[in-house]
């Protein structure tokens, strides 16, 4: 009995490890800027963002900032009423819901010059511990193949790739199985 509990706990630890959230440094090594001509659309296009992941904007706060905005404001580069504004130069935004998250630099002209980012978070996954995630500058979670989906223009969540075969879910299934097994043994 004790051995089975140990196995179940070990599986839970594995599951927690596999579902660790990622930190994405926006723009990779170039960061959040206008001078490197970073294509932020391209930067985002081969990443799969999950709830609990963090996007990290690193820039010189003398020259740039980060505004989270609506789709409408994003389209028009309208910085008059941002949802929130970040100005430290090392701003992390944790993605807590799925769908599109729109950002741009609020310094006049910068959004127009392409310093704008649309992060599309795919559908929610099961319980995700958020502690102590690793930094990854431009690669992503190990089990995600490059995304071939294009980001829709409308303010709706994009197509959600299936997670049925992802490792955290497999681990979760194993744990569920073990737990029900333990339960059956206790019950009778
Ligand atoms: C920007 O948005 C505000 C309200 O959100 C609106 O009043 C204003 O007309 C917009 N400006 C432009 C240039 O679209
Ligand atoms: C920037 O923020 C990240 C994430 O919050 C943190 O890990 C890192 O230490 C910070 N870097 C600096 C230079 O403050
Ligand atoms: C995305 O593209 C960059 C540069 O082409 C590459 O270094 C990175 O590994 C890619 N990420 C994924 C998840 O394919
Ligand atoms: Cu800027």
How is this structure best described in words?
This protein is an alpha/beta fold. It is about 25% helix and about 20% strand. The chain contains four helices and eight strands. The chain has helices at about 1-20, 40-45, 70-75, 165-185, and strands at about 25, 55-60, 65-70, 85, 90-95, 100-105, 115-120, 135. The relative contact order is 0.22. Copper (II) ion (CU) binds near residues 64, 107 and 115. InterPro entries: Cupredoxin, Phytocyanin-like, Phytocyanin_dom. It holds the Pfam family Cu_bind_like. One of its GO terms (molecular function) is electron transfer activity.
Tags for this model:
single chain, 188 residues, alpha/beta, Immunoglobulin-like, four-stranded antiparallel sheet, 8 strands, disordered C terminus, binds copper (II) ion, glycoprotein, signal, Phytocyanin domain-containing protein, metal-binding
Q: What proportion of the residues is helical, as a percent range?
A: 25-40%
Specify the CATH architecture.
Answer: Sandwich
Mean pLDDT score: 73
Number of helices: 4
| Ends apart, CA distance between termini | 13 Å
